């Protein structure tokens, strides 16, 4: 007799089978540790209402996607995060990537640039050009963007504490090219709250940092309409160890903090929300990640509508970039990373991402080589052009399990957002180390599961092999750092130093007052004031953030 | 054995400018759960700050974590600062994204162990127990 319901099947044939043959694991679970049933049937969607939960592509609540045609109109932007050494070397890599069919740029900056130190600052020793490109002045930015039409190619810049300064340099470089600022598009990450939680490239305390962010919102609204003023990021918190649901919750709690701060300065939700973008990680739990992306769109649409009272569909639609999971890459059997990345990229596409970075297989060893980056890009092109996954919008919708998971990730994330709100919001929680501790707990739990083999990582705790030969890895030529320092010192000798001084005086005054800082930053970088000089003034005025130690 | 009777004191520090502290925190916690006294410095510590903390906290072991690629430049400066303060009896180990080819020079600097991604924390715990210098 066939079973008439999931319950009947589970208690009958399924249970009998399990009694005879034990399953692979005593328990199957999601990244958040929630148990997963053996199968989902129609009962999982008993109360489920299509129009309320999904709607149609390009319509509230945007679960199925933010555009009516999605990838049938245009594939996602293939945007490989790159940058190393100096501006000249990185410019060459960008041109190579564009020639290979990449469709947008994504700039990685070195740590001194991210933390506001010039390349010749003692803090910068050993770090110049290592994890990204060194940009100390407009001169470097001009070299970086040389020969790239800034009114045509969009550029994403992973820059936070110094985001407003790098934006000022980019705008100044675009102006010098004669580009129409109305057409200059791109993104700065500029999400400082998550830096306090996980990524660590903060400089200033939260209040002045939020002020720089809202200044950028306000300035871009009037002057750089195509610019994504912030990329509110779950990625780094996920990499630091949190679960899929925490990733959404902590990110939206930060987003709420930014919106509230902007509204407090007199901006309206519809003046800022259309230019907000988001950034998610994509880890290896394939279906849970698809569900997470779908849930994220629905959650944000509801937050904008219900919390901020906006019916503007552009404000409600969550546009996001995805990067595959760096923390899922293994140094052991590194070629396996190609496959991990391909599956992760596929779930980002099935989840409806607007742009995607695929990691290179050698990134658990060093910065990627040109060849490994090319393979990573080819992975996206194969998904886009060969697999058919991009031909139908939100093709997994209606799957019992996917819809159940989408609802569950949303519910788990909502519960976390509520907890954060009850404790006083994202910023208060950061100051108490709440998110940091939650992330540490999850990271420690994952490590433990790996060590006890509750969780298999192929090539690491199972299926190990003796290490084969070490692959060729990318190394940044140390001479590049020395050249960068020499160039910077020559610039300081050549520029109009009286003008630089005047600009820095203006910045100090603005830091003490409430004027929008962006025009002053543009004036300063146009006079070739350096990032270290500008941040030096701001450090004197605002002080530096002190890490909340949670160990 | 003295190290069985006395609690091993460990400093886990992050030199350089990178903020990737997942590994450092996991290792700090694992060593603590294994019964050691662990002091974690937080990120962006200068060589001076690390050496000073090692001296003040009177640790036997210093573990450095770095993922920015600046290890070959920064590690010798940490060692120099330790020596300057007369801290020359500590066991040093490190972890992070450290290419295979950099391990010999790092060991030559005086690091007893180098632990890359995917290391089992139990291996680090036993390593520290085995190599921590005994206290007089």
Strand segment tally of chain B:
5
| Through-space gap between termini of chain B | 12 Å
Radius of gyration of chain B over all CA atoms, rounded? 13 Å
Number of structural units classed as domains of chain B: 1
Regarding quaternary structure, what we see is: heterodimer
CATH architecture of chain B: 3-Layer(aba) Sandwich
CATH homologous superfamily label of chain B: Cobalamin-binding domain
How do the strands of the widest beta sheet of chain A line up side by side? 1-10-9-8-7
Largest interface: A-B, 44 and 36 residues
The biggest sheet of chain B, with number of strands, parallel, antiparallel or mixed sense and barrel status, is: 5 strands, parallel
User: What is the typical, i.e. mean, pLDDT of chain B?
Assistant: 94
Radius of gyration of chain A: 24 Å
Query: Any low-confidence stretches of chain B, pLDDT <50, length ≥5?
Result: none
CATH architecture of the domain at 69-451 in chain A: Alpha-Beta Barrel
- Secondary structure class of chain B reads alpha/beta
Notes on the structure:
The complex is a heterodimer of chains A (551) and B (136). Chain A is α/β, with parallel strands linked by helices and 551 residues long. Chain A has a domain at 69-451: TIM Barrel (Alpha-Beta Barrel). Helices cover 50% and strands 7% of the residues of chain A. Chain A has 22 helices and 10 strands. Chain A has helices spanning 6-20, 50-53, 87-99, 111-115, 138-144, 163-177, 192-199, 206-223, 235-239, 244-264, 269-272, 286-307, 313-316, 336-350, 370-385, 400-422, 426-432, 434-451, 478-494, 497-512, 518-526, 531-542, and strands at residues 77-78, 81-82, 105-108, 155-158, 186-188, 227-228, 230-233, 276-282, 320-324, 355-357. In chain A, strand 9, helix 14 and strand 10 (355-357) form a beta-alpha-beta unit. Chain A is globular. The mean pLDDT of chain A is 95. Chain B has 136 residues and is α/β, with parallel strands linked by helices. Chain B has one domain (2-131): 3-Layer(aba) Sandwich (Rossmann fold). In chain B, strands 2-1-3-4-5 form a 5-stranded parallel beta sheet, sandwiched between helices. Classes of the chains: A alpha/beta (551), B alpha/beta (136). Chain A binds chain B through residues 111-112, 114-115, 123-127, 130-131, 195, 198-201, 239-241, 327, 329-332, 364-367, 440, 443-444, 447, 451, 457, 460-461, 470, 473, 475-476, 547, 549-551, and chain B through 16-22, 25-26, 28-30, 32, 38, 40, 42-44, 46, 68-70, 72-74, 77, 97, 99-101, 116-118, 120-122.
């Amino acid at each position: 007799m066939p079973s008439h319901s999931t319950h009947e099947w589970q208690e009958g044939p399924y249970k009998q089978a399990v009694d005879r043959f034990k399953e692979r694991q005593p328990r199957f679970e999601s990244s958040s540790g929630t148990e997963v049933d053996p199968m989902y049937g129609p009962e999982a969607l008993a109360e489920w209402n299509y129009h309320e939960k999904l709607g149609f592509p390009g319509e509230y609540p945007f679960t199925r996607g933010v555009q009516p045609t999605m990838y049938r109109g245009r594939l996602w932007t293939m945007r490989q995060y790159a940058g190393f050494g100096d501006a000249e070397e990185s410019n060459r890599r960008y041109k190579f990537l564009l020639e290979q069919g990449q469709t947008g740029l994504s700039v990685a900056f070195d740590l001194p640039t991210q933390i506001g130190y010039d390349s010749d600052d003692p803090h910068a020793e050993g770090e110049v050009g290592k994890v990204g490109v060194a940009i100390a002045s407009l001169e470097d930015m001009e070299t970086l963007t040389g020969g790239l039409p800034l009114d045509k190619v969009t550029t994403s810049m992973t820059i936070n504490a110094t985001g407003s300064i790098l934006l000022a340099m980019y705008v100044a470089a675009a102006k010098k090219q004669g580009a129409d600022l109305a057409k200059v598009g791109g993104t700065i990450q500029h999400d400082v709250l998550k830096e306090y939680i996980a990524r660590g490239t903060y400089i200033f305390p939260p209040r002045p940092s939020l002020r720089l962010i809202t200044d950028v919102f306000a300035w871009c609204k009037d002057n750089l309409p195509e610019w994504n003023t912030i990329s509110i990021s779950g990625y780094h918190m996920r990499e630091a160890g949190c679960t899929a649901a925490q990733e959404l919750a902590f990110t939206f709690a930060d987003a709420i903090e930014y919106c509230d701060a902007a509204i407090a300065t007199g901006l309206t939700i519809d003046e800022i929300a259309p230019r907000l973008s988001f950034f998610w990680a994509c880890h290896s739990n394939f279906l849970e990640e698809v569900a997470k992306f779908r849930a994220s769109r629905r959650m944000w649409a509801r937050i904008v509508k219900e919390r901020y009272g906006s019916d503007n569909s552009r404000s409600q639609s969550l546009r996001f970039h995805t990067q595959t999971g760096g923390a899922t890459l293994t140094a052991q059997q590194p070629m396996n990373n190609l496959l991990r990345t391909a599956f992760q990229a596929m779930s980002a596409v099935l989840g409806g991402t607007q742009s995607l970075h695929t990691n290179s297989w050698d990134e658990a060893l060093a910065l990627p080589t040109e060849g490994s980056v090319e393979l990573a890009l080819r992975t996206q092109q194969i998904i886009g052009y060969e697999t058919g996954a991009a031909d139908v919008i939100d093709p997994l919708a209606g799957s019992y399990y996917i819809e159940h998971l989408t609802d569950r990730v949303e519910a788990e994330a909502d519960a976390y957002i509520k907890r954060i709100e009850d404790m006083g919001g994202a910023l208060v929680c950061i100051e108490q180390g709440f998110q940091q501790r939650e992330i540490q707990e999850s990271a420690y739990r994952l490590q433990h599961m790996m060590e006890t083999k509750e969780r298999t990582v192929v090539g690491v705790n199972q299926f190990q092999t003796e290490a084969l030969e070490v692959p060729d890895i990318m190394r940044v030529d140390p001479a590049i750092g020395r050249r960068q320092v020499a160039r910077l010192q020559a610039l300081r000798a050549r520029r109009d130093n009286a003008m630089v001084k005047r600009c820095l005086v203006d910045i100090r005054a603005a830091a003490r007052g409430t004027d929008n800082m962006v025009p002053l930053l543009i004036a300063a970088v146009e006079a070739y004031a350096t990032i270290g000089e500008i941040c030096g003034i701001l450090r004197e005025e605002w002080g530096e953030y002190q890490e909340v130690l949670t160990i | 054995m003295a190290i069985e009777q006395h609690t091993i004191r460990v400093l886990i520090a992050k030199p350089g400018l990178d903020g990737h502290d997942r590994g450092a925190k996991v290792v700090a916690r694992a060593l603590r759960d294994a019964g050691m006294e662990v002091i974690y410095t937080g990120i962006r510590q200068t060589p001076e700050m690390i050496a000073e903390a090692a001296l003040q906290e009177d640790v036997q072991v210093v573990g450095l974590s770095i993922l920015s690629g600046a290890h070959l430049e920064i590690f010798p400066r940490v060692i120099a600062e330790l020596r300057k303060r007369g801290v020359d009896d500590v066991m040093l180990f490190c972890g992070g994204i450290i290419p295979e080819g950099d391990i010999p020079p790092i060991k030559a600097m005086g690091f007893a162990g180098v632990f890359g991604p995917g290391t089992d924390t139990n291996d680090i715990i036993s390593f520290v127990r085995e190599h921590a210098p005994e206290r007089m």
